[in-house]
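Quick one - inputs below.
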Amino acid sequence: MTTAETPPDAGAVEALAREVVAAHPPATTPLTDLMGAWYDAGLAWVHFPPGLGGLGAERSAQPRANRVLREAGGPEPRTVNTIGYGIVAGTICRFTPPETAARLLRPLATGEELWCQLFSEPGAGSDLAGLATRAVRDGDEWVVNGQKVWTSLAHKSAWGVLLARTDPDVPKHKGLTYFVVRMDSPGIEVRPLRQITGRASFNEVFLDDVRIPDSQRLGDVGAGWFVANSTLGDERTSLGDRVPARGSGTIADAIDLWRARPDRHTPVRRERLTRLWIRAEAHRLTADRARVSAARGTPGPESAITKLVGSELNQAVYEFCIDLLGAEGALVDTYSPDAPDDVSGPTALQRKFLRSRATTLEGGTSEIMRNVIGERVLKLPQEVRNDKGKPWKDVPR
Amino acid sequence: MTQSPTTEATEATEFAFSDDLVELRQMVREFCAEVVPEEVVRAAMESDLGHDPALWRRLGSELGVLGLAVPEELGGDGIGLVAQAVVLEEMGAALVPGPVVGTLALAVPALSVLPHSALAAELLGSALTGTTVLALAAPLGSGTFESDALGASTTRDGEAWTVHGVVDHVPDGAAADVLLVAARTADGAVLLAVDGDAPGLSRTAHSTMDLTRRQARLDLVDVPARLVADVDAAAGACEQAARVGAVLLAAEQVGGAQRMLDRTVEHASTRLQFGQAIGAFQAVKHKCADMFMAVEQARSAAYHGAWALQDGTDDPRLAASLARAVASETYFRVAATAIQLHGGLGFTWEYPAHLYLKRAVSDAAVLGAADDHVEQVARQVIDGA
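Output:
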């Protein structure tokens, strides 16, 4: 296949991907078998070492492999295990011994073992590093107590990645440690968390004297913040290999509705929709520009803004749809917690409107994102932080 | 580790700025920093023409950046519109005074698409070296060529053409050595060259908000003219000017907006109030972040327009209107926010923020306002939906 000395180039990666989908046609191969073969061939994360789902190839070859899989009718790998592919795999690869990594990564890659992220807490949202869940050492184990929130997939997950406070006497960033924890461990209770949509797509997770072996610690004690942040960059650079077509995505909902409801056409709405379309198009082009810069090895500042712009645009589009619908815009057909994930049905737009309120909160609120752009991109001075340099235990909360 | 050359992005990809383009940008930026400091801009504001002919000649002859999008067989460099947009962006950042609108954004693109003629070649040649200032007097005020709004008409006696009428708000109309006048005939519009000192032509320079962007009113009474484009070519040339001009002005707008953002960030980082730099306050910081996002969106739209016109990657009318709709709005909003965040300093004559605000207004006022281009997008995208 490949020699150890020379990692395959992007063309070879793509050729290998074609071999795998030819040998395991996505249409007739069970998903776990397909993704298992994908992992075994080193295509799950091509930049990982051989034996850990990788080939030691350039990371930039990944989108080409994924495209082969997609075009053959296979899944976008991420959708198989969102948190697993998104943030966990890279952390495991970097911070666990190879034999442990091999044991964890294959079932992660196939989706047989889903992963969730136990980071946010009721008292630590934007200020994540201020989190209060405690882990206290007891011999070869850690005893964990606390509460996590906004944990998607917690009820279906085999594993979670956990940030916990191991030293309250040092400033907040320095007293955190990173663990992986079995979600069936005694003392873990998962409760669904209902959102304004009526659905429960997230959970609260309560940890009551949960015991975690020290062997499930990733990185040094007190290095949890560093470990967690080391993979945040992965998400930012894992931009797709393509940009959606013009007029697709969120704006398509507005255009489709406009087309379907000529009785609601007015000059004011026409202008509003046009301005939304222009915003959507400028946003799409900016995402494309970011993709090209990243692919050429010079990721620019564009990627920092696509989340912020996209989320605010998403809200504006559904606000337009609700207004266009008039009295119908005030209807919601179901608040069932079990309503399907794919928002459909007679009041799909109304439910998307409700869902859109989360887009400016999740993954960094718009306020935090503006701070990030101001401070990290524009290099403006940091705002005054009252907890700076103080031991965590002395900070009001 | 070296970057793999095997990524999908090739030199032909939209937004893939080649090393040559990066170098070009750097060269123009350095030239502007050295040769066009703010004092030069302010001197131009006080001058009769609103620009410095010697500086314009240097740009044309020494730097050679006025004909990058003009095909080589017409005396240009044949590199493409993206390169010319890069130049305009840097010129916009430095507020380089010159007949940018009349000559570079309008007359040169119009002449570049005409069938070969000795006259067009002569005009183009002297315009690209910066020795001749050209202006285009055509109804482009809504962003497209409106043939039913022609202010001039023409009569012909053999090969002798005579122009009559009134054309107002002609960018660089007073400074132009030669005016390209779109004139009505019974068969449609033609494009005629009128010398600046032709008998029967009187030019009234308007007093403008942006003192480096002049307009003039032309009163034409039996003015002798030479035919540049006949009825088969004139309308197309004017349309081309409208589109290329839109994209180039969008690039200039991006450059100006970026410079205002940079100056504002610099100010917010050093101006102390309440014992700290004001940029530490979220009220200020978040406005800066919004300026940044707006500039990046405008940059995407402007360069998409340049690539679309250069390589045919998109409908040129839509791409041009999109560029201008976003860039005009952005430049004005960013310049206005810059004044706000500079506080009283931003309102002084001495500080340059007002020069950018005024440029934002003058840029947005020619070749169709932002709302005109929003309307164009509505017609092309929404009405057909």
